[in-house]
Amino acid sequence: MIRGNFVLEMGILVAGLLVVLTGCSRKSPHAVVISAGDLTVTFVDNAEMPPEHRAGYNGIARLAHVEEPDPIFVPAYAGFNLEHIFAGDSLPDLFEPRHAPMELRQLTDRAVELHQPATPFSHVESWTRFEVVPPNAIDVTFRCQLHDLTFFRHGYAGLFWASYIHAPEDKRIWFWGVSPDEPVPHWIGAYSEKHGLASTHLSVKDSLTLYFAPNFQATLASHFSDYRYVLPFFFGRFHKMVLIYVFDDDRRIRFSQSPTGGGATNPAWDFQFIIPKPRVDSTYGFQARLIYKPFVDEEDVKAEALRWLKAKQLQNR
Predict the structure, then answer these.
(1) Closest Cα to residue 186, out of 224, 226, 225, 230?
(2) DSSP labels for 240-253?
(3) How does strand 200-203 pair with strand 224-229?
């Protein structure tokens, strides 16, 4: 049962889609469950959802597939969770986007939007649109505006998302990249022995050098590996499944991971979006696709990612 004074709870079967709406007559819902194709996805704002889901974790609370009913994300936490807004200095609120109010709206029978008004310290307003695309994908469009640059005094803005994975056998994230000892592109399985060690992996096209104060707390964002990714996607394994993150931006997206971000057995598969030289009230953003399906092999993963990237290129011509 979702917390709140809700007066409407129903399931609607439309054109093969099961959409569970949870809402009330005057307030936006705190959760929307959409089943389409092979996926069942629970989208949430920052509200608590007893008995398991904790307050302060937004995005995707639960992601399940018809061939893997166990949820891939830690039930108390979330995936694609907007976690940090940073600019290099020590953060007055490490988890500002998790603590600031959000509104969840249902847009269509397959799509929702999370809107967060300007946050109290960084004054960032954001909109995240999620759309479930059968049979096995979730398309994401993120937009944001910086309404005041006082917080961003070192010439950049950084936003950080976390996905807490529920005890996978393999904690690594995998991507197609290069390393100092192997400059020819190959599959890299990135893993840190401890939280904040060699945790962020840049694109081969990322030439930005960002300022980080000695007391900067979001250490996953400020500690770097020697790996560089060549194609803008990464994936991780969960039981017999694979979760793929594909991005349309190969310069400003940075991959990150932690072996224990969600607890001793629960790694975090994360990423960042960097905005160099931001301006007040300009709109910045990216698009991404999450794909959750049975794992075939690495080449199948690459084919899935390239198919979406080529479609985006054709769309933008």
Answers:
(1) 230
(2) TEEEEEEES-SSSE
(3) parallel
- Does the pLDDT at position 175 exceed 80? yes
Nearest by Cα to 144 from 82, 203, 57 = 82
How would DSSP label each residue in 252-302? SEEEEEESSTTSTT--EEEEEEEEES--TT-EEEEEEEEEEEE---HHHHH
Q: Is 110 exposed, middle or buried (0-12, 13-18, 19+ CB in 10 A)?
A: buried
| CA-only gyration radius of the chain, Å | 19
> Could you give the C-alpha distances from 82 to 45, 79, 173, 179, 292, in angstroms and in order?
10, 9, 19, 29, 20
Q: Which long-range contacts link 141-144 to residues 24+ away (Cβ below 8 Å)? A: 141/285, 141/287, 142/273, 142/285, 142/286, 142/287, 142/288, 143/283, 143/284, 143/285, 144/283, 144/284, 144/285
Cis peptide before 135 (omega within 30 of 0): yes
Residue 9 has pLDDT above 70, yes or no: no
- Each residue's pLDDT tens digit, 127-173: 999 999 999 999 999 999 999 999 999 999 999 999 999 999 999 99
Residue type for position 55:
A
- The fraction of the chain above a pLDDT of 90, given in percent, is 88
Asked if 158 and 273 count as a contact pair (C-beta separation under 8 A), the reply is yes
Distance in angstroms (rounded) separating the CA atoms of residues 102 and 114: 7
Q: Which domains does the chain have, with CATH numbers?
A: 81-315 (2.70.98)
Cα maximum dimension of the chain: 61
**Chain segment 221-276, per-residue pLDDT in tens:** 999 999 999 999 999 999 999 999 999 999 999 999 999 999 999 999 999 999 99
Per-residue burial over 111-143, b = 16 or more CB atoms within 10 Å of its CB, e = otherwise: bbbbbbeebebbbbbbbbbbbbbeebbbbbbbe
**Per residue in 88-106, pLDDT tens?**
999 999 999 999 999 999 9
Cα distance between residue 30 and residue 55, in whole Å:
11
Assess contact for 301 and 242: CB atoms under 8 A. Answer: yes
